[in-house]
Amino acid sequence: xTKILLxxxxxxxxxILFEQQLDREAVTLADYPSKDRGEFMRHWEGTLKNKTDxxxxxxxxxxxxxxxxxxxxxxxxxxxxxxxxxxxxRGIASAALAEFLKVVKIRPLYAHVANHNAAxxxxxxxxxxxxxxxxxxxxxxxLG
Length: 144
Hints:
The chain contains 5 helices and 7 strands; from the N terminus they run E-H-H-H-E-E-E-H-E-H-E-E. It is an alpha+beta fold. A 4-stranded antiparallel beta sheet has the order 1-2-3-4, sandwiched between helices. The protein has a 3-stranded antiparallel beta sheet with strand order 5-7-6, with helices on one face.
């Protein structure tokens, strides 16, 4: 398995995460719009203040590869992750999610993924998530 480190998010990480979410290819693959700097910083400020959200930086070989988080949306506890494009295809997301699931014990846990994002679907399946529904744009996965 790919060796990664999950650690708490600190303010100095946010500029790197901001840059990662601006990548057009990543935005297209995730089917999730990027945010401008002010909106992005406000979003993360709220995430870091919310005691029920769990957010971690994914480090790979000493570099910030991306982030992974768990939050409550409506009646679902959700998990999501984002990697910088230079870290794709190395097993980092699978390793990070497997490690994160040892920290976040909440079940059931849901993930919503763009239907065209085959790599992210594979990550979820490798970590035990089961496909619940495949809508026109989004697939819903569940663990537990």
